[in-house]
Amino acid sequence: MAGARLIDCIGNTPLIRLNRVSEQSGCEILGKAEFMNPGGSVKDRAALGMVLAARESGALSDGGVIVEGTAGNTGIGLAMVGSALGHRTVIVMPDNQSAEKIDTLRAHGADVRLIPAVPYKNPEHFVHTSRRLAESLNESEPNGAFWANQFENLSNREFHERTTGREIWEQTGGDVDGFVCAVGTGGTLAGVGRALKAAKPDVMIGLADPGGSALHSYFASGTLEIDGSSISEGIGNSRITANLDGAPVDESWRIPDDEAVPLVYDLIRDEGLVLGGSSGINVVGAMRMAATLGPGHTIVTMLCDSGLRYRARLFNADYLASKNLALPDWWDG
Fold first, then answer.
1. For residue 100, what pLDDT band results from cuts at 50, 70 and 90?
2. What is the pTM of this model?
3. 8-state DSSP, 180
4. Can you state the percent helix, strand and coil of the chain, rounding each to 5?
5. Which of 52, 161, 188, 267 has the most CB atoms within 10 Å of its CB?
């Protein structure tokens, strides 16, 4: 029997029942195990969707270079998918991201260009820099270059609508009352939300937003106002991207680090799941949704990536203390 291609192993991740939070809330809280994708995160889906769409449209030629500005996981997915399909990948990344993600990108063969972290309105922001680099490489590379543009590229959202949303619907047998997750590009929340709303219009779609992001403010009051900060990486935004525009969001919650980070440690101790900070924010968001809906409902969220990609932060007592956070008492690091 022939084996599967690497790209065929992206998606179809299982739903894991989160026992303790399910019992505490009286709801079935299920986590989509996106850390089980071959590149280790939910961003493998966006990477595959954008690359396949670009190859089909001709925006990415055989042997062409993939260029993207990313905080890490999308770059890892693009480097992996690119290598599997014969493309070199160049990643422009803010220099404040975890060393583990930078090392993983390089291990996947990506050409990583680290630049200072600046606000999006600054022309030197990593997204704008990656666009200019793609334009330059498109002129100099023999097979051209493709700018993935994950925030505005609707192939991101559409791939989640076709795959992630469909999988959740089928895995729950249609018995799903709510879906909630944090937003970076908006592709996951918007794509899954669109798919589930099409199948069940009264399903609740919720946003779990970290400190330092303006999206909770937008969905709660219609204004983009940033509040607080977070140690989480790759989620939150200060603008409405093309992928997020029109997303069917019913409820929004601000999730502070002092709730999300302890929950990450609880998931290790109670469930055996070593996950990143975004998963902690997502699971707290699922608990907020459970409190809103009441007992007896089924809620799905995303378990985005491994906590091992954030060892220098999540498991560093000095760093956590600088953010008024702490390792759990049982931790023997």
1. confident
2. 0.95
3. E
4. 45, 15, 40
5. 188
- Under a CB-based contact definition with an 8 Å cutoff, are residues 331 and 265 in contact? yes
Q: What is the pLDDT of residues 289-333, one digit of tens each?
A: 999 999 999 999 999 999 998 998 999 999 999 999 999 999 886
- Return the active site residues: 43
Look at the block and give the residue holding tokens 């990108």.
Answer: 105
Per-residue pLDDT tens for 217-249?
A: 999 999 999 989 999 988 999 999 999 999 999
Task: For residues 76 and 79, give the distance between their C-alpha atoms in angstroms, rounded to a whole number.
Answer: 5
Whether residue 85 contacts residue 55, with contact meaning beta carbons closer than 8 Å, is answered with yes
Round to whole Å and give the CA distance between 291 and 279.
18
* Closest of 4, 29, 13, 115 to residue 295, by C-alpha: 29
Residue 162 burial by Cβ neighbours in a 10 Å radius (0-12, 13-18, 19+): middle
For residue 64, the 8-state DSSP code is P
- Is 263 in contact with 286 (CB distance < 8 Å)? no
Q: Do strands 89-94 and 111-115 pair parallel, antiparallel, or not at all (unpaired)?
A: parallel
C-alpha angle with apex 160: 301 to 244, nearest 5 degrees? 85
Longest dimension (CA), the chain: 59
The answer to whether residues 74 and 39 touch, using CB atoms and an 8 Å cutoff, is no
